[in-house]
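Illustration 12: CSF2R factor.
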Amino acid sequence: PVFTGTNGSAIENFSCVIYNVSLMNCTWQAGRDAPGDTQYFLYWQNSRDDEEMECELYIKDENGRNMGCRFQNVKIETEKAYFLVNGTSNNSLIQFYDEYIQLYKIEILTPPLNVTVNCTRDSVGCMITWQPPLTSHVEKVKCFQYEISIQNK
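Figure caption equivalent — predicted structure in token form:
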């Protein structure tokens, strides 16, 4: 591909995370050699069947430059989501940045639900039970793995 634009003007350190089941945050840093008036715009496509959409809620720095995006009602699809960040400047052409991301890989799971601990006085010990965390896409409960950390007090 031919990348038009000033070298070093594309964004850097692009990263996204999904939390609370359906919220997503993406952030980036301005290109090292991007002019001071550069403004960035994020577009994304969750699956091939969806339309490409621009970010609705940008995260801005103190100078009003877009440095991230907040998303709501994100659904995790089986295929990769496509992200594109391009930029504009009055002084020069800005290189774009794009990436495909498998959304399930960037999800921070909520804690397991209804954790209960029942301890008996005899040497049987304690019974710990819980239910799987909330998630928008995992249908098989056996997909989850858990780790219990017990500290004696």
